[in-house]
Structure formats: structure tokens, C-alpha cells
Specification:
single chain; 62% helix
Length: 87
């Protein structure tokens, strides 16, 4: 049911918003982007009651001692390279 909710939300928002975007002064490509967000929230809304009933409680945890997180942070840091712009 959840993936179907994502598809339905994405498609309905896209079809419904494309004609409205120019009148709002926005590019029409924003309609599918908004549709994906709405579909994602719809997907989460379908799953949420069952997850709560099963005892799932979301708590974000940011542990800087986690090796995976440290690796990602190192890879995201700017690196010095031998690249130079063309002259």
C-alpha cells in the first residue's frame, strides 16, 4: 500500500500542479518535485500508524565516534588536489 501511495501522490500532484505553475511564476518542473515530496509524506503517513503500534519510536542519534559517520565526514571535507584551472 505504501509504494502505491507514493505513486498516487506523485502523479496526482504533478498532473494537478503543472497547469498552475506558470500562473504562480514557477517553472513547471517544480510540479514533479513537489509531487515527489507529497508522495513521500503520503508513504510515511501510511506506514506511521503500524510502526507506532509495533513500538517504533524514532529518535535521531548523532554519534561522532561512529566509524561510518567519521568516514563520510572525511570524504565530504574539501581535499587539496593538483588540479589547476586552465589559463
Amino acid at each position: 500500500m505504501s509504494p502505491a501511495m507514493f505513486n498516487v501522490g506523485s502523479i496526482l500532484c504533478t498532473v494537478g500542479l503543472v497547469p498552475l505553475m506558470p500562473s504562480l511564476g514557477l517553472p513547471t518542473i517544480m510540479a514533479p518535485a513537489i509531487g515527489v515530496l507529497v508522495g513521500g509524506f503520503g508513504q510515511m503517513a501510511v506506514q506511521w500508524p503500524t510502526l507506532r503500534r509495533e513500538g517504533f519510536r524514532y529518535r535521531p542519534v548523532l554519534d561522532f565516534s561512529d566509524p561510518g559517520l567519521r568516514r563520510v565526514l572525511v570524504l565530504m571535507a574539501p581535499a587539496r588536489s593538483g588540479w589547476r584551472p586552465c589559463r
